[in-house]
Amino acid sequence: MLKNKALIIIPAYNEEKTVGQVVRDIYSIISRVDVLVVSDGSTDATAKEAKAAGAFVIELPVNLGIGGAMQTGYRYAAEEEYEYAVQVDADGQHDPKDLPKLLAEAEKKDANLIIGSRYVTKTGYQSTYARRFGMIMLSRFVQMAVGYPVKDTTSGYRVADRRVIQLFRDYYPLDYPEVEVLVLLHRYHVKIKEISVEMRERQAGRSSITMLKSVYYMFKVTLAIGIEVLRIQTIRRDGSV
Amino acid sequence: MNVYILSVLFSVIFLLVVVELMRRRWLLEQYSLFWLVMGLVILVLSLFHGWLNQVAASLGIFYAPSLLFFVGFLFMLGITLHLTVVLSRLTVRTVRIVQEVAILRAELDKYKVEPEQSRSE
Questions:
Q1: Which of A82, A91, A203, B13 is the most exposed place for a label (fewest CB within 10 A)?
Q2: CATH code for position A209
Q3: pLDDT > 70? residue B120
Q4: At CA A37, angle to CA A31 and CA A42, rounded to 5?
């Protein structure tokens, strides 16, 4: 079986309306990649739609949540020794047109993780004030923890190289992983770079973060960052990396 | 019936229940040991409540049985914390197994499909 250098990982939970189109869009823009859809215990036709569109599909027998599904992709990428793994959302929010740009940046090899960011330069992306405030707060927390600015901490449009794939294979947070892993990667001296991308309106479904959940989200993520920082200090005291 | 007799009765029944659970293998030895020790401690404390009274008095507790409840409360707190640690470990293991099974099954399907395709050619 012919294998490409990069694996696109699309975790999907009941996204039958959009997942097929997302896979077809990716193949129409870029052909030298393999597309993996991880169906996270979906009860609809997500897996069928993804297979019909030409993706390799891994079906989780139970719902693990976004972190568990994403890690499945990283485990597969590590096992099959892919050089790059790219996270793409199944809801159509991430524009496949940016894929060649993100991959080209990864191939320069001066960063281990490339983040497709909404805020590096002005893009058409709009969001509510509360949401923007929360994102700025998280951005500040992350900067305090890692010592350099990451503008779009919650973006799930990312390219990971071999080193990051291996780290994520061994540990990936179960829920709301995007922000937390930035601090985790910093602990392993992983280089992160942001590239400007366009984000579209989601084509179907709602954000997994509703009003009530956002309080839990902020609390959980802040706590996770704090604990990660404690881990950094433990490592320094030991004198090991 | 005073509180001491009640707690002797309770701890005896409790120990019997634990032993029965072990007999049916509903409770792993690693966890049952904990409960057996706890049951015995309560039993001894309620049988010889003179000790309890002395300790309570030295701690400035006027109603000795409340020391019993206090120790029991601390123990419950400890075991609940322990249980959530065990639960977290189980969660990580379950996730790992689900991922491995799903990957294996997807790769198995790959091999199931390919021979049929070559036959039709």
A1: B13
A2: 3.90.550.10
A3: no
A4: 155
A95 located within any domain: yes
Residues B68, B62: Cα–Cα separation, whole Å: 12
Give how far Cα A112 sits from Cα of A7, A122, A142, A162, B94, Å. 15, 24, 18, 8, 29
Contact status of A71 with chain B (Cβ, < 8 Å): yes
Q: How confident is the model over A43-70, as a mean pLDDT?
A: 95
Quick: pLDDT tens for A126-141.
Answer: 567 777 888 888 889 8
Q: Is residue A1 part of a domain?
A: no
Chain B CB contacts of A51 under 8 Å are: none
Q: Quick check: is A133 in a domain?
A: yes
ipTM score for this prediction: 0.83
Calculate the CA A143 to chain-centre distance: 19
Tell how strand A6-12 and strand A33-40 pair up.
parallel
C-beta separation of A90 from A18 below 8 A: yes
Do residue A64 and residue B95 have CB atoms under 8 angstroms apart? yes
Higher per-residue confidence, A133 vs B81:
B81
Q: What is the pLDDT of residue B121?
A: 43
Dist. CA A184–CA A97, nearest whole Å: 29
Contact A61 B106 (CB under 8 A): no
Q: What is the number of domains present in chain A?
A: 1
Instruction: Determine the structural domain holding residue A100 and report its residue range.
Output: 6-238
Closest residue of B to A171, CA-based? B92
Residue in A9, A156, A193 with CA at minimum distance from that of residue A85: A9
User: Is A209 a domain residue?
Assistant: yes
* E-assigned strand segments in chain A: 6-12, 33-40, 56-60, 84-87, 113-117, 158-160, 192-196
Q: What are the φ and ψ backbone dihedral angles of A61, each rounded to 5 degrees?
A: -65, -25
